[in-house]
Amino acid sequence: MTIAAILGIALIHLAAAISPGPSFVVSVRTSVSEGMRTATGLAIGFGLGACIWAMAAILGLAVLFEVAPTLFTAFKIIGGAGLLYIAWRTWRHAREPLPASTDGTLVVPRTLTSAVRLGLATQMANPKPAMFFGAVFAGLVPPDASWAIIALLMAIIFVQETLWYVCVARVFSLPKSRATYGRFKALIDRTFGGLIAALGLKIALT
Questions:
Q1: How far apart are CA 4 and CA 139, in angstroms?
Q2: Which is more confidently placed, 145 or 66?
Q3: Number of domains forming the structure of the chain
Q4: Is 157 helix (H, G, I), strand (E, B) or coil?
Q5: Which of 94, 137, 148, 196 could pair with 87 as two cysteines, CB 3.0-4.6 Å apart?
Q6: Residue 10 within any structural domain of the chain
Q7: How far is CA 166 from CA 86, 142, 149, 180, in A?
Q8: Which residue in 50, 58, 57, 54 sits closest to 143, CA to CA?
Q9: Domain annotation covers residue 45
Q10: Cα 125–82–190 angle (5° rounding)?
Q11: Is residue 15 part of a domain?
Q12: Nearest to 126 by CA among 159, 165, 79
């Protein structure tokens, strides 16, 4: 496999990772509400989820989805339901004030492990990356690619996905962003909840 092909996959994936979707919405909300540490755990979960879908594409899940569209539809419905659940929880707790310590700083209510699980669950709720990776790999990864090359591709996908969302976390966890969020928490949470719900419905129905 040529270096040009590897760079091509890296660039295509980076463009896909940057494009807004459910992960971006959840990342922004988590960053402003729970801070950089929690959002970094979320980013790691996103990276792991992207690798799982990429590996599934290599192992033939994308082909299986094409051969058995009913299975793909079932995955989309289950994933969409998962995002709707996240949206419902976001909307339900919209009016709850942010917890704060005695010095006024925000207290992170979610553990790092829990944040990784949320990131992974959010990423796995959207089965469309399996089709994306399947299409990309079909054109650029030869059938006889070594496991070393596959491991390199997984590392690139994980690093790019994670670092992008770490950057998102950094921007939206800044004190000014968090202060603004605290003042308009109910409105912002309901807006984010609505966006997540809309994305969940889009995944389930398209």
A1: 13
A2: 145
A3: 1
A4: helix
A5: 196
A6: no
A7: 21, 32, 26, 20
A8: 58
A9: yes
A10: 115
A11: no
A12: 79
What whole-number distance in Å separates Cα of residue 76 and Cα of residue 115? Answer: 23
Q: Which two tokens stand for residue 32?
A: 């402003």
73 contact partners, CB below 8 Å, separation of at least 6? none
Instruction: Report pLDDT digits (tens) over 168-196.
Output: 999 888 888 877 777 777 887 788 788 87
- pLDDT band at 98, cuts 50/70/90? low
Strand, helix or coil at 100?
strand
Token readout for 178 is 């968090």
In Å, how far from its chain's centre is CA 31?
13
Angle of CA points 130, 84, 120, to nearest 5°: 45
Torsion of Cα atoms, 62 then 79 then 173 then 105, to 10°: -150
Rounded distance between C-alpha atoms, residue 143 and residue 205, angstroms: 33
62, 120, 162 from 136: Cα distances, Å: 11, 22, 20
| CA 126/CA 107 separation, integer angstroms | 30
What does the pLDDT look like over 61-80, one tens digit per residue?
Answer: 666 767 778 877 887 787 77
Pull the structure tokens for residue 112: 């790092």
177 in any annotated domain:
yes
On whether the CB atoms of residues 73 and 175 are closer than 8 A, the answer is no
- Half-sphere exposure of residue 97, counting CA atoms within 13 Å on the CB side? 7
